[in-house]
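Sequence, structure tokens passed on for absentees:
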Amino acid sequence: MSEPVTTPAVWQARVARPLDPRAQRLNDSLAVDRRLWPEELLLTRAYAETLAECGVLDPAGLTTLLASAQSLGEDLSAGRIGLEGEDVHSAIEAELTRRCGNPARRLHTGRSRNDQVSTLTRLRVMRLCDEAVEGLRALERALVLKARASGDLAAAAHTHLQPAQPVLLAQLWLAHAHALERDETRFEAAREAADSLPLGAGAVAGTPLRYDRLALAARLGFSRLAENSVDVVGDRDFALEYLNASSVLGVHLSRLAEDLVLWCAPAFGWFTAPDGFSTGSSLLPQKRNPDVFELARGKAARLMSNAQRLAIVLKGLPSAYQKDLQEDKEALFDTADTLELLLAALPPAITALEPNAERIRASLTGDLLAVELADALVERGVPFREAHTAVSRLWALAERLDVAPGAIPHEQRLALSPHFDHETLASLTIEAALERRSHAPGGGPDSVAKQIARMEGRLGLGEGERERRIEEKGTVSEGDGIGGTASEGEGAGGTVRDSRDVRRPGRPERVSRSDVAAGAATERVSQSASGSLAPGTEQPSSETISLRRATLKDVPGIARIMAEYVAQGVLLPRPVSELFQCIREFHVAEARGQIVACCALRLLWDDLGEVRSLAVRPDHHGRGLGVRLVAAVIEDARALDVPRVIALTREVPFFERCGFGVISRDRLPRKVWSDCVRCPRRHACDEVAVVLDLVPGATEAADAAAGSWLLPIPQLARPETPALPVVS
């Protein structure tokens, strides 16, 4: 890496002496805000276009400046160069000046570091909000999958850390998923607050340049324009909203972590701290510590303190820009780093947890049915307050006698209430308690099933809130009833109706983590009694399979096929709402009235389409459906005059048989910055990009034009209007 070159501060001409080194260490922010160099170069490209529209830059200067920005970005990405200066703005400007001279010296025309830093910070906060939402959804999927896997297993719900009432274990998992869903809305609101272009505000009073701010906003990815120059240069509400959303999320993550620490503790024993996410002790050989969950609980404090930190800074400031605002980025970046760590580690740690059903069932003691007895008295006409008092006295007597309430002599029970007879006590069971609370928002089977269905549909794990027939029943628990000495079956958990259809197709083999469950997944050699078939070979079958365009009625079937692949991380999630919106992209394979395979073509830009959501039901692997579906969407691309089609996959041989060739993902920026930038696995992706040119030379032409668009969205075409004047 080359040594940085010392450059004078951009304001140096105003004062006689440079900053004292002690003051400079306090003043300079490059050590913190250097992270914003991608946004700074994005702004450079977009604003250079604006300056060309205004006549400040001539075409040759614009071309030179854009090329210099491109090469600087490549050097910074590769680590070939370091930045030097007071802050990221002056450092980038100085390096561009060294590379292209006069065009870079014109770059700061009509803008100030005040509106410049606001623009960069807003861009970063918008991105951080998107990343937080995607990370939250990955965590929610892990929780919902745990809820689904819990089936009919019931557990004690606690208040004050004391056993309270029985609920399905799934209800406890879903409680955390609901809290995280609310966190999503907070981050979306923070993104909305950041989505406003400050440029044009200048230092505080605006700019004499008249230009199309909407066009500039579109090039940068903003949808709204700031209206007041004094307000916007000092506004950090959006940053505070992001930090506040993160703070509330920290509360929820800490609560989740605390529950998991307790559930993994021997006193509960519901789960064991999972291998790969737990550590041992340096002294105590027997220890297994749930460190990931404990660290999540601890790091929540950072999220909360960062929000308070910025709020305290903002509280003491007058209007417009003040140097104190430089403190916003350290809090932002620390929160972003903390969230990235937490939201990466928690989903797999939760997935790795295995329940100890016996210990969970053991939590279902007769004490959980006390309120059921009070409710039974209410059904017989006793006012609830009187019923509550009577049951309280019954439990107090049982405690003094050190027996279960049902084991208290009959005469003593009747002395407390004539309704405390054998029949009443024996009729109270865990099963009945769950059924009585099976409607929303209770913890019984119907309520839980509806919650899971809605969550699955929202997170791309299922078909959503549709009526599901009850196909089978399962055992709730073997917990104690209230009767204490009741005979077998009395007071013990029996069966409880499960309103979820738990009979699902066979689980697909783990193949890929991409948006395409193809290749060996769809054309997998089928292991059958007749032996193996070669990939792509039609498996003998008497059923007729038809390929056709999808319709709205196919959405549930598509969602069902994709759900298990999404659960395994093979496919990117497509919420049911999104499937309805993009149903015209899909082709499906139908057999006996059921959807058995699907595939879609998504248009990413005017020169690029993508094969996505390719999935085949496991019992239909090996029948050539993947190849046929890919061919169908490629024909769609040809009909739309799309020059090339891509896919991201781990099954390269399959796509090579379909005519695709391997390509670097770096050559597909529109895919990377539209989808991959929001993918939870973006930092550990092992997929391969493949491309099929439908027009010869399309990929080479796209490479040649790579500098003509801006991250994170493609650059809009330059308007066919005369350059706007500079107003002095």
